[in-house]
Amino acid sequence: MEQTVIREPQLPYLLELLTELGDAANDFILAGAQAMRLAIGETRDTRDFDFVLDVVSLREATQSIGDTLTKLGYEVDPKAMRLQFTKDIPNSRETMRIEFLAPEREKRQNPKEIRVDVQPGLHARACKGQKSC
């Protein structure tokens, strides 16, 4: 079977993000269709990157993930409650879109709330299995 990789032009920007995160990258688990593409090679077409976060570890980290995203040129998607970030890819029609997910048990106490507080100003979407993500 031919190995499928993350397509250009997103790949260098994904690697840039993971490199800039340093040790904190260990707390990011690639999920969704991009992860399936790497594992089985055949998935629906997608351009976004979903990361399940180790929220407990990131809350204790000294590195600000929000500051790292800002440094790399990512902007908050205004409709996404600080859960999604985008970055235009130069000389391309493509954008990098990343979304953060976290276990439902870590979400805010309000039953209507879907956010998990990760770090100041940074949230993830609470997920209970794949159907809620």
Low-confidence runs: none
Number of strands: 7
Strand content: 25-35%
Series of H and E elements = HEHEHHEEEEE
On the 0 to 100 scale, the average pLDDT is: 85
Distance between the termini: 29 Å
Please describe the biggest sheet, giving its number of strands, its sense, and whether it closes into a barrel: 7 strands, mixed
Number of helices: 4
Radius of gyration equals 15 Å
Structural class: alpha/beta
Give the oligomer, counting copies of the same chain as homo and different chains as hetero.
single chain
Shape annotation: globular
Fraction of residues in helix: 25-40%
List keywords for this structure.
133 residues, 4 helices, 7 strands, 28% strand, globular
What does this molecule look like?
By secondary structure, this protein is an alpha/beta fold. The protein contains 4 helices and 7 strands; from the N terminus they run H-E-H-E-H-H-E-E-E-E-E. Strands 1, 2, 3, 4, 5, 6 and 7 form a 7-stranded mixed beta sheet that branches.
Secondary structure elements and pairings:
Blueprint: H1 10-21, E1 28-31, H2 32-40, E2 48-53, H3 55-60, H4 65-71, E3 75-76, E4 84-88, E5 95-103, E6 115-119, E7 122-127
Parallel strand pairs: 2-5, 5-7
Antiparallel strand pairs: 1-2, 3-4, 4-5, 6-7
Question: What is this structure, in a nutshell?
Answer:
This protein is of the alpha/beta class and about 130 residues long.
